[in-house]
UniProtKB/TrEMBL annotation:
UniProt signal peptide: none
Gene3D superfamilies assigned: 1.20.58.1040, Glycosidases
Source species taxonomy: Eukaryota, Viridiplantae, Streptophyta, Embryophyta, Tracheophyta
Molecular function per GO: glucan endo-1,3-beta-D-glucosidase activity
UniProt protein name: glucan endo-1,3-beta-D-glucosidase
Protein family (similarity comment): Belongs to the glycosyl hydrolase 17 family.
EC number(s) recorded for this UniProt protein: 3.2.1.39
Length: 443
């Protein structure tokens, strides 16, 4: 089982045009697009990933999208509710939410076909040493974790975990770079005869040990998110992303698991497309996990091991707006009192995460940085004349200001996909999970 994960925190999105294909992996456009465009004989190969802000009334229709075909495998409740940064906010509500959805599925006669899970961050467990065998659940959430694990086990559901080796590198400047990849880092960690030469294996098996020590050693594990960002940090770049994702896919295609779970891994790459409206509280890299740019063009090649093709296929039928950009006037005075608030306003309402140390645009000078901010705001507002009216500072040009790897974006056309009087946003989803945000559900 393999797939790509996509969440809809994006403003610049490809309009709906029919199934986008990555080799043998098909995507279906939901919410704003009908599933009727996807050939029914392909539906058994896909799961559903979609944000639903409603009750379970839509769920039955999604599951039975075609007679005799089960389109949905899992319902995921929330996402990473026990992050340490949440300070326990969701500890009391996550298990009841799981139980409520399980009850609704059982009442609807769907519990044998659809399983309920909750994607958890890898910080719910830890090791007292570098060895996975010293792993256990985080002490402050140990009790609730055991309750959830028992619930999953009792209902035949998998434990879903999001593992990001990039975060290890981001959080610790002394973390060995090669240990984050699948290149056979040496010296490997020896854990009672089991060898660990990459942090993914060590992280995954720390979870296995935490489960095993509590009597759930056979509970299935799904890696709900794994990937590498391409911008927003010195270690977030296209070269590292391609290296990591290809390394992971090569392992997947070979059927190689981890020392504690040597069989094939259930895992989903994160993410399909960049999310330029996503929170950057964890870091600027959060908006750059996509394997595709916002216009559906692949950032790099990735061998997915398909007989039909070996790489990522660009979206078709995507049109851009005119080749014009909003930039800082050459005559503008950098000491003008309006410069700082103008840049701040542009970045607050658009995306400037490609600016800064180690990013794709870190070679820009002051003029370039200001121009990038202005253009980002201009494009996100569909090149409206009023969006390039920073007082006495900005102008529109037809000369591409891009420099090297720093690309000044041009907005894509969305007016051809008008739905319900608004631009039709892409809800490209490889059917993986249905994210039911339980705080918005009512039973």
């Amino acid at each position: 089982m393999k797939g790509i994960n996509f969440r809809g925190s994006a403003l610049l999105l490809v309009p709906c045009h029919g199934p986008l294909k990555l080799s043998s992996i098909y995507f279906v456009f939901l919410e704003d697009c009908s599933m009727s465009n996807l050939p029914h004989h392909l539906l058994p190969n896909v799961f559903l990933l979609i944000l639903i802000y409603a009750d379970l009334g839509k769920l039955h229709a999604l599951i039975t999208c075609s007679p005799g075909i089960n389109c949905l495998r899992y319902v995921a409740v929330g996402n990473e509710p026990f992050l340490s940064t949440y300070n326990g906010t969701y500890e009391a509500t996550t298990l009841p939410a799981l139980q409520n959805i399980q009850a609704a599925l059982t009442k609807s006669g769907l519990s044998n076909r659809v399983k309920v899970t909750v994607p958890l961050n890898a910080d719910v467990y830890q090791s007292s040493s570098e060895k996975p065998s010293d792993g256990g659940f985080r002490p402050n959430i140990n009790n609730v974790m055991l309750q959830i694990v028992k619930f999953l086990n009792d209902n035949g559901a998998p434990f879903t975990v999001n593992i990001y080796p990039f975060i290890s590198l981001y959080s610790d400047p002394n973390f060995p770079v090669d240990y984050a990849f699948f290149s056979g880092y040496q010296p490997a960690i020896n854990d009672n005869g089991r060898s660990y030469d990459n942090v993914f294996d060590a992280n995954h098996d720390t979870l296995v040990w935490a489960l095993q020590k509590n009597g759930f050693g056979n509970l299935p594990i799904i890696v709900g998110e794994i990937g590498w960002p391409t911008d927003g940090d010195r270690n977030a770049n296209i070269q590292y992303a391609q290296r990591f994702n290809q390394g992971f896919m090569s392992r997947y295609m070979s059927g190689k698991g981890t020392p504690m779970r040597p069989g094939p891994i259930d895992a989903y790459l994160f993410s399909l497309i960049d999310e330029d409206n996503k929170s950057i509280q964890p870091g600027n890299f959060e908006r750059h996990w996509g394997m595709f740019y916002f216009d559906g063009q692949p950032k790099y090649q990735l061998n997915l091991g398909s007989a039909r093709g070996n790489g990522l296929v660009a979206a078709s039928g995507v049109d851009h707006l005119a080749k014009k950009w909003c930039v800082l006037k050459p005559s503008a005075n950098l000491n003008d009192d309006q410069v700082a608030p103008s840049v701040a306003y542009a970045c607050q309402n658009a995306d400037c995460t490609s600016l800064g140390y180690g990013t794709s645009c870190d070679k820009l000078d002051v003029h370039g940085n200001i121009s990038y901010a202005f253009n980002s705001y201009y494009q996100i507002n569909d090149q409206m004349d009023s969006a390039c009216k920073f007082p006495g500072l900005s102008m529109v040009t037809d000369k591409d200001p891009s420099v090297g790897d720093c690309k000044f974006k041009i907005m894509i056309q969305t007016d051809s996909a008008m739905l319900n009087g608004r631009p039709g946003f892409l809800r490209i989803v490889l059917c993986v999970f249905v994210f039911l945000l339980f705080r918005n559900l009512s039973f």
